[in-house]
Amino acid sequence: MNLSEYAASHGLKRVGARPPFFSYLREVWRRRVFAWTLSTYTSEAANARTRLGRWWLILLPTIQAGTYGLIFGLILGSNRPHNFLAFLFTGVFLFSFMSGAFQSGASSIVGNAGLVRSLSFPRILLPISSVIQQFINLWAQLALLLVTLLVTAFDFANLSWQNPIDLDWALFPVVVLLMVLFCSGLAMIAARINAQARDLGKLIPFITRIAFYVSGVFFSLESVLAAWPTVLAIFEFNPFYDFIQLSRGLLVQGYEPSAKLWILCIGWAVITPIVGALYFWKAEEVYGRDD
Amino acid sequence: MTTKKQTAATETRQPVVVVDGVDIVYKVYASGKRANRWNGGSAKQKLREVHAVKNVSFTVYQGETIGIIGTNGSGKSSLLRSVAGLTQPTNGAVYASARPVLLGVGAVLMPSLSGEKNIMLGGLAMGYSKKETAELAPAITEFAGLEDFIDLPMRTYSSGMSARLRFAIAASRNHDILIIDEALSVGDQQFRKRSEARMREMRDTAGTVFLVSHSIKSILDTCSRVIWLEKGVLKMDGDPLEVCQAYNRYTGVTSTED
């Protein structure tokens, strides 16, 4: 009897063996508090050494929105899309959530080497935790967006205010949920690629930049590409754009959510996390390695 | 004659960990630029294979405390990381009755967080609930002797203090299989006594403990069996006193007093 047969005959199991997919998911669910706690702690620690502390959660998006509002407002001049500030802030905030999830997801395994090397837990909790951390930041941005939407509904010329809140707003939390699901999948995929080939880390700034310019964050894709309907159709197959545009349709006056956008967003939200979880789980045994 | 007795005893004992022909090979990019260019080093990056552990096999039985000794770079930590399932061996496999828990010196959890929060994260990652961890936290803090510093970030701790905290977190519960990687060598005398007592306690409650240490004294004080690794090869495996004496002869240390 060789050693492996001997081990099996005494009921010993191979250490570090990747569990079947569904028991893996069950284990992830059991440790969900770990992911949540890790993200709140990391979020606190990120601002702990600054003087303004937690105020940065709201200060950062304000500065971000102010900068983009000023620059793009001036550059675009009269080409500004309708209801520009509300249009721009929806784009900037949602984009920063999604690209943030991509970036922090990519570094979630590589950047938490201490945790990965010393404790055994389903590694997928790390990209999930990085998305939760982005979600915590998103709350402050959404609060700021609400203020913008209410203020821009004020017509200064006629000194009148038209309530921008309508029934569509009730559907916005659904879009946020879909977006979180999509981002979780994205973070899982990025985490594995970066853990196995650190080269992705070098490319992330460029990928994010390109995504920023092609997702219609500060300009309207429809009017720029109006003359090329085929190109527009290709550009519309971009999850960043889809979530931003659908949210505009629900929140910003003068924009309507199309059925096509709903279908695309639901598709992204279903397919990405399934693909991401499977793809990440496949390499579960590899993440602790040094090389 | 002792070997025959041992074989008879092994058959009745329950194995806890079986290490089956484990090979660990690291592939590392080495910058070939050497300090002395005259000895033929090239300036090009090349892939080097480091064979850290070579075909190591052994079986550990319930209730044993295994000491692992060897000079620096002999593959002790690599081997134990694969026993804990953190590094998959290149060849061979490790089988165990429960998931071994590794406690190592290099394992800083989250340096920017306070000791308290690291206790919480460690507990949650080990599978406790938030409430259970909160209940254990005072005992962990006391065991680590860090009552006055537990609210400070771990980056402000000395290496001894953080090693104590990590040991206390892992030792807060009776693990079936616990691996301690030199965690005790950085603690002070007082803490060393406390942790050795805790390790004996864990051994008595049928837990299996692996201990890597350069302190022959603490190995002799706590272990029931010693494995000596040298350059990745299992050189000797058996009675603590015999193995340690042979090791001391090899390294040129004459007394067993540390």
Name the features.
heterodimer, A: two-stranded antiparallel sheet, 2% strand, B: 258 residues, alpha/beta, Rossmann fold, six-stranded mixed sheet, three-stranded antiparallel sheet, 8 helices, 36% helix, disordered N terminus, transport (chain B), ABC_transpr_TagH-like (chain B), ATP binding (chain B), ATP-binding (chain B), nucleotide-binding (chain B)
CATH class descriptor of the domain at 63-89 and 99-251 in chain B:
Alpha Beta
Q: Between the first and last Cα atoms of chain A, what is the distance in angstroms?
A: 34 Å
Greatest contact between two chains? A-B, 39 and 51 residues
- Separate helix tally of chain B: 8
Stretches with pLDDT under 50, minimum 5 residues of chain A: none
Structural class of chain B: alpha/beta
Q: Give the integer mean of the pLDDT values of chain B.
A: 81
SS-based class of chain A: mainly alpha
CATH superfamily of the domain at 63-89 and 99-251 in chain B: P-loop containing nucleotide triphosphate hydrolases
Task: Describe the model.
Chain B: Belongs to the ABC transporter superfamily. Chain B: One of its GO terms (cellular component) is membrane. The complex is a heterodimer of chains A (291) and B (258). Chain A has 291 residues and is mainly alpha-helical. Chain A has helices at 3-9, 21-30, 32-48, 56-76, 84-106, 113-118, 125-152, 172-196, 199-214, 221-224, 229-235, 239-251, 259-282, and strands at 13-14, 154-155, 160-161. Chain A has one domain. Chain A has 13 helices and 3 strands. In chain A, a hairpin with a 4-residue loop joins strand 2 and strand 3. In chain A, helix 3 (32-48) packs across helix 7. The mean pLDDT of chain A is 89. Chain B has 258 residues and is α/β, with parallel strands linked by helices. Chain B has a domain at 63-89 and 99-251: Rossmann fold (3-Layer(aba) Sandwich). In chain B, 36% of the residues lie in helices and 28% in strands. Chain B is built from 8 helices and 9 strands. In chain B, helix 3 crosses helix 4 (130-144). Chain B is globular. The model of chain B is unreliable at 1-6 and 39-43 (pLDDT under 50). At the A-B interface, helix 1, strand 1, helix 3 and helix 6 of A face strand 1, helix 2, strand 4, strand 5 and helix 3 of B. Strand 1 (13-14) of chain A pairs antiparallel with strand 4 of chain B.
